[in-house]
Structures are given as C-alpha cells and as structure tokens.
Predict the structure.
Amino acid sequence: MIRTCPTQPYTDQKPGTSGLRKKVTVFQQPNYAENFVQSVFDVIDGKQGATLVIGGDGRFLNREVIQKAIRIAAANGFGRAVIGRGGILSTPAASNMIRIRKALGGLVLSASHNPGGPTEDFGIKYNIANGGPAPESVTEALYQRTKVVDRWLTVDTADVDLDTIGETQVGNMTVEIVDPVADYAALMERLFDFDAIRAAGLTMAFDAMSAVTGPYATEILENRLGFTKGTVRNGTPLEDFGGHHPDPNLVHARALYETMMAPDSPDFGAASDGDGDRNLIIGRGRFVTPSDSLAMLAANAHLAPGYAAGLKGIARSMPTSAAADRVAAAKGLPIFETPTGWKFFGNLLDAGMATICGEESAGTGSDHVREKDGLWAVLLWLNILAVRGQSVDAIARDHWATYGRNYYARHDYEGVESDRADALMAELRGKLDTLASTEVAGLRVSGGDDFAYTDPTDGSVSRNQGVRILFDGGSRVVFRLSGTGTSGATLRVYLERYEPADGDLDRATGEMLADIVAAADAIAGIVRHTGRTEPDVIT
C-alpha cells in the first residue's frame, strides 16, 4: 500500500553545481531527505515502470537515505531500482550504469570531496538519462518544487539487504543489488590497452583516501593490471573516510606527495576523491596540475585504443587554464570554454562536439560517461606512459617545450561569511568598466568581464559565472564563489601566467605567480573584505 506522508517545505534546498549538499545534521531533520527526493520525482516525467539507479560513496547516512529513496521510488511508480552492493557506486560508475541500463535517471548520494561523518557533509544529486547531472532547467524546477512540497509517498516494507547481490520486491518495484565494479571495469578494459600497461613494468602508488574508488582501483590496478598488492592505499571505503578529507590535492594527499618526491619513489602516483570523480596525478618528482593534465591527456589521447581515431573537440571550464586551448589550436580542434559544473559538458558530449573535458578542480573525463572520472584519467595516464616509455616529468617537459607553459594555481578562502564574499564580488563587478589599460602590481590590465556562456547546442545562457581580469601577455586572474561547500562561502581565486615555448619553463609556480597574487588582492581587496591574509588551501 502506498502511504502519503504530510510534510512542510524547507527553504534551503536549492541545488548547487553538483546537487544538494548540507551537513549530516541538516539531512537528519524530519522529512528533509524525503522532501528532496519526492521533489525530484515530482518534476520528472516517465516514472511509471522506469528504471532508477541509486548509489553513493559510502559516507555516513548513505545507507539510511538509500532505504528511504527505495521506498519513495516504489511509491512513485518506478519499476526497477538498480543499486550498487553496499550502497556503493562511484559517480562515474553510476553514470555508466544509468547509460547501460537505459535508466530514466539516478540518485547519486555524495558530497564529493567534502569530509564525511556524523557532523560532516552529505549530498544528493539527480542524474538524467544520459548519465550526467541534471541541467539547470531541471534543478530550477526541482528547487521550486521543494519550496511548496506538502507530502511525500512511501511504502511500508522492511529494509532491503544492500549487501547481497540479487533481486527483491518492494511494493511493485524490483530492487536489484549489483556488483558496483564489474561493468565499470569492463568499460575501462575496452578503452585502454591493458596488455601494454602490464608489459611496461611500471610501479605505482594509488591513494583511494578511504573513499569509494578503493574497490574499483583494487580490482582494476591490482587484479587486472597486475600491480603489486598494496599499490592501492586506503582502499576500504569508510563512512568518515578515516577522519581525513577525501580531496585529492597536495594538502590532503600530502603522504602521497612525499612518497612521490622521494628518490626511490614509484614511477607514477595518483589519488581520487570521495565519490571517485576527481584525480591527482603525480610522477616521480613532478606534480601535474589538473589544467596541465587535461592538456597533456588531450595531446596524447590517441595512444589509447578508445581514442585512436582522434578527438572531436576539447572542453574546459572557464577557470581552468588555457593550456588545453593551445593543444586544440595546434591540432585544429574546437575548444569550448564553459561555466564550472560538469552538466555544461553534457550537451557538448551528447552532440558529438567534444571528446575530452576537464576542470581545474581535478576533474577530467571523456564521452565514455557523462561525469568526470578519476580512475579514467589515471588509466589514460598509465596508457600514455606505457606507450611513450617516458616518465611523467619527461612528458611534461616535452609538452611545455611544444606548447608553452601555463603556470597556474588556485587559492581557496573557505568558510567566508556570505555577506562579505558577496560584497567582494559586487565591488569587483562594479570595477570592470574602469580596469582596462590600468596598471596593477606591475601588470597591465587588458580587460575583464563577468563570464557568461551561451550553450552552442541549445542556445541557453548562463550569466554571472565568475569575474575574469585579463593582463597583457595571456596572464589572468579569475574570482568565483564556489557552490560545492555546505556552510558559508568559498572564494576561489584562479591565477595564471603564460610562458611561451621559448620562455622560462622550469621555475617554481609560486615565484612565477607572485605578481599576479599581488594584483589579485589589489584589485579585489581580498584581505580587506575577508580578513584573511592567506588562503586556506593552495592547489
């Protein structure tokens, strides 16, 4: 029997760039998760008899919300729910599962790279039938529904056994528990030359950060590719990620960095984040920024079987460095600059206009799914290393000698009071018309704008996506407020300096960006507005 549960709407359920993210204690409020899931189902069509994929990164509250979502889905008429064993599905694996099962969509339960645990973060995102995040038209309709939702539907049944593969019935809906790794691993074997990687004799260290990628990395790297047992570190997903922050950057993956900077390090190091869609790439003595990684992968992708025919185009988020643009220009490929948020790449991928996409926030991926994919990037790097027979450092140096180098860093000021962050951005926007041709901290400003994007596939326009300040010579600084946090505001400042192929290619990044850092504060008044003299995280 379907039961109708009266409820009152919450006013804070507006999805960000990757769904709704809040503290666990917020999601534990009566009807909070139920309201959001029901609102998703209220605004999508075609539910009767359809297939829904459900899975998450295993963080605290994952299992409880999955049980609620199962009952609500059954009450709303879905015919089948496909769920990863243990409630586990990495974000790229969920995207793949939606696509191969021809599902109507999927609920991805994660707060990505944010911490997990009883006092930390949780999130819910809805992905559509192409496997990608819901577009703004859907998320806006969802938000409007959350403001008026007055009931949610459920069926009264016992909890489903999430740990046993097989099928069971919940109301009129079949619940299928599946191996979360098998289909994804098979896809990776089709894209990459596993024989070449095995034959290369590479050594490796992979940090799964006690997050969702552990089972995937263990199966693919150790079991199928033959890397030694123990190659995958922190490979068991934990509800609190072992008390660590599952963000693959040089702060939170410091142990991996120190391993790779040692003279006896493995050939290759990598890490992934909470839900498996981000990556850290590091060779012996050489860290590769996400922006450079995107460019280097695009330049060499043809070495992997899945991309042997070449690329259709390259897409990057606006804050990502222009390194990929130079590869595109050299190869005669279209380059697309989009707002931050993987959903903006989905239309380009679906239309066959782009093959490889990337964001400076450590997300890269291709048209094999409709999400960024941490392990995909790691495997493409391994394929390139195996075929070229060079180190990560040698490949990076060759790349810069061909295309020039975009020195790049991101400074994050986390938990800034929202009114202060908004005041900073408002003041910046007010300066845009007067900055051109002025000199700041020894740099000449060539222009600036508040980035807006017109989607070439459907004509939709996204405005106010970040303030860009451009300097003579191809350098720039970008200011943007992030939508991935759960409290306050995160001010992200993106700093970039271009050096041509015959320029200074082997200097410390901080040294090369010092004048741009000074210019950024002079223009935006970061210290004055935020009271912060240093960023919380430098990537």
The chain has a mean pLDDT of 96. Residues 81 and 180 are 14 Å apart (CA to CA). The radius of gyration is 23 Å. The first strand starts at residue 2 and ends at 6.
